[in-house]
Design brief:
single chain, 5 strands
């Protein structure tokens, strides 16, 4: 693939801080990571609704939805997964620069990829939320029937079955979605954002 050349960064006329002041809250990435079926998308969307109801500007980037558009050229090899997360990190940074809270729901199985995204942002802007749920429980839920296909060998490189998931070493939040209901999980997120003076 040919790389871009002869490009120059163009500074924006409005700063992130000016946009945050207008919005009345800080901006950040809430990065939900965890196994398929752990509840990432469900919790992210419920948290987004709660933030919206509190007049907090936000947007959800969901793994499946992004792969329908921006990343539809990527598969599930380790290299493609890394590129998937790299692109999402860059898009997330744009949302932070616009003064919004962006909630991302991606398995993002590799620690190094998540740390690369953290490195794009300023201190306190990357909130890693490990949606912790046992493989057994995720497989019982299996809302998309993916575990069944992975066990049958139909899906290759499936996280938790034939491809590894690397748990975060020091996430900002661990949400045990097999022990708390969605509302309780959302409350933990909102409480954290308030404790950090983000909202």
């Amino acid at each position: 693939m040919e790389k871009s050349t002869n490009i120059v960064w163009h500074d924006a006329s409005l700063t992130k801080e000016e946009r945050q002041r207008q919005n009345g809250h800080k901006s950040a990435v809430i990065w939900f990571t965890g196994l398929s079926g752990s509840g990432k998308s469900t919790i992210a969307n419920a948290a987004a609704k709660e933030l919206f109801d509190q007049n907090i500007r936000n947007f959800v980037l969901d793994g499946d939805n992004i792969r329908h558009g921006l990343n539809k050229d990527l598969g599930f090899s380790e290299e493609d997964r890394t590129e998937n997360i790299r692109r999402i990190g860059e898009v997330s940074k744009l949302f932070v620069d616009s003064g919004q809270i962006v909630l991302t729901a991606f398995i993002s199985p590799f620690r190094q990829d998540r740390e690369i995204v953290r490195g794009l942002l300023e201190e306190g802007e990357f909130i890693e939320v490990y949606v912790k749920c046992s493989l057994d429980q995720c497989e019982k839920r299996d809302p998309k029937g993916l575990y069944k296909k992975a066990r049958e060998g139909i899906i290759k490189d499936f996280t938790g079955i034939s491809s590894p998931y690397e748990e975060p070493n020091a996430p900002e939040l661990v949400i045990e979605s097999d022990k708390f209901n969605v509302e309780e999980c959302v409350k933990q997120i909102i409480d954290y954002l308030k404790s950090q003076n983000i909202i």
